[in-house]
């Protein structure tokens, strides 16, 4: 947000159930993370955005660390769902490769998984990513079924393809915009490059 832009007005406080309050706080925290990065995810900023006092935010999460942990857990679950959608597309869609790329890129960019992954990596607590393990395994299995590629060498190629998509999506979500601007590239250049390279794995 530029200096000239006004900050969002604080919401008026209202009565809500504990579940509603917690969900609204997590939604606000996600928005702040996507808009401005991890340093913007503060109890004060979240309270202002959803119309809760600092004390109320602490009441629902225990501490700033508790809120951050809850946010990571919520976003990891969403990433797992997105990967599940990718599995479904791979198994049912004839245009699966590009659909798969778009789903993963959207999860890392619009869904905030890129900033989340960077935040988790910088925090040093990689255990937060453990719930994603099964979703990644399922994605590898779905691609293996789609292309009927058997044997260790086929499995390694599929794993390499998934790694390529994830790393490209992560990099694009973090610095793709500025790099594309420097190079005069199209907005979907990262996705297109990934789609062009992907067939070499199969």
TrEMBL record:
<dbReference type="InterPro" id="IPR050109">
    <property type="entry name" value="HTH-type_TetR-like_transc_reg"/>
</dbReference>
<feature type="region of interest" description="Disordered">
    <location>
        <begin position="1"/>
        <end position="24"/>
    </location>
</feature>
<dbReference type="InterPro" id="IPR009057">
    <property type="entry name" value="Homeodomain-like_sf"/>
</dbReference>
<dbReference type="GO" id="GO:0000976">
    <property type="term" value="F:transcription cis-regulatory region binding"/>
</dbReference>
<protein>
    <submittedName>
        <fullName>TetR family transcriptional regulator</fullName>
    </submittedName>
</protein>
<dbReference type="InterPro" id="IPR001647">
    <property type="entry name" value="HTH_TetR"/>
</dbReference>
<feature type="domain" description="HTH tetR-type">
    <location>
        <begin position="19"/>
        <end position="79"/>
    </location>
</feature>
<keyword id="KW-0804">Transcription</keyword>
<feature type="DNA-binding region" description="H-T-H motif">
    <location>
        <begin position="42"/>
        <end position="61"/>
    </location>
</feature>
<keyword id="KW-0238">DNA-binding</keyword>
<dbReference type="Pfam" id="PF00440">
    <property type="entry name" value="TetR_N"/>
</dbReference>
<keyword id="KW-0805">Transcription regulation</keyword>
<dbReference type="GO" id="GO:0003700">
    <property type="term" value="F:DNA-binding transcription factor activity"/>
</dbReference>
């Amino acid at each position: 947000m530029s200096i000239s832009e006004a900050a969002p007005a604080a919401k008026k406080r209202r009565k809500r159930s504990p579940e509603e309050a917690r969900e609204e706080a997590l939604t606000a925290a996600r928005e702040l993370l996507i808009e401005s990065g991890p340093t913007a995810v503060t109890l004060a900023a979240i309270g202002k955005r959803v119309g809760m006092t600092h004390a109320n935010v602490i009441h629902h999460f225990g501490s700033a660390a508790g809120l951050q942990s809850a946010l990571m857990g919520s976003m990891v679950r969403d990433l797992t769902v997105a990967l599940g959608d990718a599995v479904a597309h791979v198994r049912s869609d004839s245009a699966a490769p590009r659909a798969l790329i778009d789903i993963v890129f959207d999860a890392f960019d619009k869904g905030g998984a890129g900033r989340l992954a960077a935040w988790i990596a910088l925090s040093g607590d990689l255990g937060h990513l453990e719930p994603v393990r099964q979703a990644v395994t399922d994605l590898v299995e779905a691609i293996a079924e789609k292309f009927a590629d058997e044997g260790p060498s086929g499995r390694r190629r599929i794993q390499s393809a998934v790694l390529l998509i994830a790393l490209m999506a992560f990099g694009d979500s973090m610095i793709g915009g500025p790099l594309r601007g420097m190079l005069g590239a199209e907005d979907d250049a990262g996705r297109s490059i990934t789609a062009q390279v992907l067939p070499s794995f199969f």
